[in-house]
Amino acid sequence: MHKPFDFEIGRLTGQGSESVRPPLGLAQAPERGTFFLETFGCQMNDHDSEKVAGVLLARGYRQVETAEAARLILYNTCSIREKAAQKVFSRLGEYRAKQSEGKIIGVLGCVAQQEGQGIFERAPWVSLVCGSASYRKLPELIAQLESGNHRVTGLDLDTDETFESEITRRDNPFRAYLTIIEGCDKACSYCVVPYTRGPERSRASDSILREVGQLAELGYSEVQLLGQTVNSYADPTPSKMRFAELLLAVARVPGIRRVRFTTSHPSDFTLDIVEAMEAQPKVCEHVHLPVQSGSTKVLQAMQRTYTREQYLEKVAMIRGARRPIAITTDIIVGFPGESEADFEETLSLLDQVRYDSLFSFKYSPRPNTPSLRLNDVVPEEEKSRRLAVLQDKQREIQSAGNKQLIGETFEVLVSGKSRRENQWSGYTSSCRLANFTSHAKELLGTYVQVRVTGATPNSLVGDHMV
């Protein structure tokens, strides 16, 4: 299913483009001072990898396209889902012999913070374990390894350093990520974020606006504000700028054409955010509002701080806007104690809300989370069945919704060119993928008008209106 923002397991972060990792042994011998960085997870992990690359490049390191060509191999990890964590250890297993070749292998991010020194026990060939709050210390940690230390860690959740000025290498030439709030104070019973990223701390509004201005001067026209609960933003400066006010302020920066934000928490989603989206067209008409379940009973077991009815009140507030706003969500199936009746309530929620897209997952127990203590575990086969039913229903909803857009014209930021002649792709401001035909020679990074002529469940099909 199409996802509102990329969430892919195992992307290579290198030289501003995505690449395919070649078979082992095909690359040149590594030189000292080279690094390879692979990212697992969501857009916050992507942005973290941009920070890591920026720190290393600023200190004379050179990024290479393959692990074989690198002296330093780094995996920036996600632990939100069990599958992502397993993928990391699978990748580590492929390089267990590389330490003897003089390579330094490091695990960064959420799995590093979650597993800590336990990673050394599972993968003794790993030399470096570093959480997201310690990326600034990477050169120091690497220097310790170069001087003879066999294992080093950076696992402090130092809230004071979270938003200090940092050098970031941008991988996307058109859209820039900007973390405005780190960590989470919510206590969802299934979630590891409070353990891996620490408590909520917000970046100063003047610092955010200063960086947005710098990005605009560099030619970026779209910025995406990030946070585990981005709309929980609490400006630490005397101005006490609210999240909705920050959206408007970012949109007023000269050169900025689109402002996105993710991920919102329903409990902190307020009317002034909708009003900001109504008042300022530059604030994109898309809200990612995770619900996780359509059953109030399950939501309570998840400790999600709202009921089904309260969530639907937020949806009604968004749907009532003068400007059509796309809504996407996250859903977990098979949470402990979820009955068939609970699952049916989730299916009925899909019928009621008619989401434009969604992420859907089978529940997987995560370390240190309260849900580990819950009984009445749903069998894995039943989880798989429910996930398939959910995805089939959502596919029908998306197909019908996208077909209703045939004949309309949307502005698209062009971000991709197909190998097929005259075929391009990009996203509308409502975050719908559009594949379209154009005879123009070069469109990447430009905004074009696309008339929709067809639709699939996952994308719009159209023609460039010249």
Topology at a glance:
Layout lengths: L7 E5 L21 E8 L1 H16 L3 E2 L8 E6 L4 H13 L9 E5 H7 L2 H5 L5 E3 L7 H9 L5 E3 L20 E5 L1 E2 L10 H4 L4 E2 L2 H13 L4 E5 L16 H9 L6 E5 L8 H9 L6 E3 L7 H7 L5 H12 L6 E8 L6 H14 L3 E6 L17 H24 L5 E9 L5 E6 L4 E5 L9 E9 L4 E6 L1
Parallel strand pairs: 2-3, 2-4, 4-5, 5-6, 6-7, 8-11, 11-12, 13-14, 14-15, 18-20
Antiparallel strand pairs: 1-2, 9-10, 16-17, 16-19, 17-18, 19-20
Helix pairs in contact: 8-9, 12-13
Describe the structure.
The protein is globular, with a radius of gyration of 22 Å. It has 13 helices and 20 strands. It is α/β, with parallel strands linked by helices and 466 residues long. Residues 1-29 have low confidence and may be disordered. Strand 16 (409-417) and strand 17 form a beta hairpin. The chain is 30% helix and 22% strand. It has three domains: 8-160, Rossmann fold (3-Layer(aba) Sandwich), CATH 3.40.50.12160; 161-400, tm_1862 like domain (pyruvate-formate lyase- activating enzyme, Alpha-Beta Horseshoe); 409-465, Nucleic acid-binding proteins (OB fold (Dihydrolipoamide Acetyltransferase, E2P)), CATH 2.40.50. The strands form five sheets. Strands 1, 2, 3, 4, 5, 6 and 7 form a seven-stranded mixed beta sheet that branches. The chain has a five-stranded mixed beta barrel with strand order 16-17-18-20-19. It has a three-stranded parallel beta sheet with strand order 8-11-12, with helices on both faces. The protein has helices at 43-58, 82-94, 109-115, 118-122, 138-146, 193-196, 205-217, 243-251, 271-279, 296-302, 308-319, 340-353, 380-403; strands at 8-12, 34-41, 62-63, 72-77, 104-108, 128-130, 152-154, 175-179, 181-182, 201-202, 222-226, 258-262, 286-288, 326-333, 357-362, 409-417, 423-428, 433-437, 447-455, 460-465.
